[in-house]
Amino acid sequence: METLGPVGIKLRTQMEMLFDKLANKNEGNRKADIISLINNNKIDFNIAIQLSHSMIATGVSEGQNLTQLAMAIGDRILAFYKINKKASVSLKLGVFIINSYSTLFMVVVKLINEYYQHNRVKTVYKVYAGKNRNDLRKLVKEFSEQSDPYKPLLTRAPNWEFGKVTIDNGEQINLIKNVNNDVLSQININNTPIVLNAVNKKQAIGYYVKPELFDVYKWALKTGQDCFEHNSVKTISKERSAAKKREAEQILHAAKPFVGKVFYQQYQADNRGRLYPLSAYLNELNSDNAKGMLSFAEGKALGSTGLNQLYHHIANMFGEDKLPHNDKVKFVEKEYYNFVKMGNDPYNAKGWMEAEEPFQFLSSVMELAKLDKHFVACGNTEDFVSTTICYRDGSNNGLQWLFSLAKDDKHGHLVNIKPSLDNKPGDMYSYVALSVVDKMREEAKKANSISHDYYNLYFKGIEKLRNRFRNAELNNNNKSEVYKKLIRWYQKRYKAQLKLTDIIYWDKSKFTVKEWRKIVKRNVMTYGYSATKQGMGEQIIQDTRDIDNVYLSNKQHSAARALGALVYNTIENEFPMVSETMKMFKENCGLYMSKTGKQYSHKTLISNFPFTQKYVKYKVQIVFVHDGLYVQNADKSYKWENQLELKIKSELAIQNISKAKAGISPNTIHNLDSLHLMLVIDKLDFDIVSAHDSFGCHAANVVDMQQCIREQFKYIIDQDPLAHILSETGNLVPMINQGNLDSSEILESEFAFA
After folding, report:
1. Does domain 211-259+298-393 have CATH number 1.10.1740.10?
2. I need a labelling partner for 665 at 20 to 30 A (CA). Which of 16, 255, 273, 519 fits?
3. Is the entire prediction scored with pTM above 0.85?
4. For the chain, which residues make up each domain, given as ranges?
C-alpha cells in the first residue's frame, strides 16, 4: 500500500478522531459493531482510505445512494482483509468511512425524495460532492493510478490465469463478479483459454486522450455549447438534464489526469460473460462524451483500405448510418472540406455539434484535418498513421440472436443476418412502426362515433384545465393546487370513458414515420430482453416526451399502455418463431430449477464460460446504525442523525423461479454476444475495442474485423446453441420447430455489423 499525501493524512486523522469518539461513547455499554470490528481485525485506516477514495469520488457529482455506496465500500475492505461478515456489518463499516469524508465536507449526505415507477416517491439518503470537493479531487491525485482498479491504469493490469488475480495494492479481484468460488474455480488456462485470452488482450490495449480534444470538450462544457444532451434536447426533463450535465462534468474530471498519457483498463466479467471495465466514466461503454475522448495510443497506417473505412466511420458518427458503404464514402468526400474545417477550428466551425455522436465525430474529423495536411505534404494517404477507433455495430442485437437461434429465414434480412432486399440496411424498427400504425388505424376505425365525440369533448375540457393550471403555476398563483385537484377529479370521473379513446388518441397524432420509429424503437429493442406490455407503455411515455413534450403533457398513461400492448402483440404475431424461442427458454429454466432445486446454469458453447443465474427471494432488513450519520438539513446546516435506520435486502434460501424465467432470455442473449466477442478477439491479432455488440479497431483493420465478426457469428450458429443449451440442462423441453436459415448468408450481408 502507498504512503498517504497531505489530504490523506488529514482524512486519516479525522477517522481516528471519529473512532476514538465512538469508542469513548460506548465505554461501559454495548460497544458499537464498528469498534470491535476495527480493533479485532486490525483494520488500517490508511488501507481503508486507499480502498474507498475512488469509490466515493466516482459518481458523487450526480449523487450516489448511501446504502449502496456504504455496502460497496464495506464489502471491499472486508474482502481485502478476508473477513466474512453479515451485510449489516459491511453497511456500518461503509457508513463510518463515509462519515469521515462528510465531516471534512469532501462529500455531503442529504435526505431526498426520489421518484420511481408510476411517479411514486421514496425518501433516501444520497451522497453528493461537498463544499470541499477539491480536497476529494486532490486525494484522488495523491495515489498512483496503478494502485486502484477503479481508475484507469498507467501500467497494464496483471494477466488473468485463474478466476482471481492479486493487484499491486495487495487486493484480490475476481474475474467474474458476484459468483461463488465453485464458479471461479472453473476459470483456468486449460478449461477456459478463449475467455482468458480475450480478457488479457483487452487489458493490453493502450488508450490516449488527445489534448486538443480535451480542450474543446472543456471549453464546450464551460460555455454551454449544444454538443451535450443536457443542452441540445429541449424537451428533456430538468432532473434528467441535471443528471446528464453532472455525467458530462464527471467525464471531464475523470479524463483530466490522463490527457496526453497512455493508459489501460482492467476488466471483469459478469455472470453472463459480458466484459466491463472496472473504472467508471472514462471507458468505451460510456456515452459519446467518453467514447469521443478515447483514441488508440498506438496508431496504424491506413494502408489500402483504411481511408474508406475511416470515411465510413465519420459518416456513421455524423448520423448517416443507414447508407450503403459506398454512399457513406461519397457523403464524406462531398463534405470533405467542411469536415476538415471543423477539425482545424472546432471553436468557430461548429457544424460538428450537429452530428449524431458529436465528440466521436469531432475526434475523427480532427484526424481528417491532420490527414489532409499529410496528403498535401506527402501526396499519399496510405502511410498516414491513424489512431481513431472505428466502430461497427450489430443490428438490434437481441432480435438478431433470436432470429438466428430460431433459424428464421423469413425475417433475417430485417436484422441483417441475410443480404438486403433493396440495397439498404434492414430496419426492424421501421418495419414494426409501420405495422403498428396500420393496426392502430384499423382499431381506430372500429371505434364508434360516440367514442370519437367523447374524445373531442374530453380533451377540450381537460386542456382548458391544464392551461389554467400552467398559467397559475407560472404566475405563482395559489389556485394552481385547485386546478391540479380538478384535473385529477376529471381524470378519475371519466376514467371508463377515457379508456375508449386510447387508440383514437394515437390516431389523431401528427407523428411522422421517423417519429413513430423512435417511439417504438425501445419497445422493439427490449422485446428480446423480456420487456412486458406494461413496461413498453412506460417506455412510450418517456420516449414520446423526448419527441414532443407538449404533446405528452396532454396524454394519459392509459393511452401509452394501450399502444405498448399493441406494439407487444404486433411483435408476437409478426415473429412467432422468436416468441416460441423465448417461451422455450422460460419453460426450460423453470423446469430445471424445479427439478434440480438449483439456480439455472450451464457451460457456454465453445468457450466453457460458466454461465450462471442467481435469483432468490429477499427480505427487507432494518439495520440500526448506532454510530450515526453526518447529514445536511434542508436549510444547509449540518447535524448528526443519531437514530439511523437503513434498509438492506437479505437473501433467503428460496429460489425466485418467476424472476429467473423473466431473466433467462436476455441473459442467454448476453451470454451469446459475449461468446461472439471473445471468439473475435481470440482469432484476431490486432486490438479490438468492444461495447458488447459494438466492435472497434484501427481503420486499416476494419475489413478483416468485419469478416471475422461474420465468420464467428456463423460459427456459433452452426453449433446450434439451442440444442447445446437443452443438452446442458437435461433436455427437459422439446426443441422448437426451427426454420431453414442458411447461416452462410451472413457472410454475404453487407450490412451485418456495419
Report:
1. no
2. 519
3. yes
4. 1-143+623-647, 211-259+298-393, 397-411+578-614+658-748, 428-574
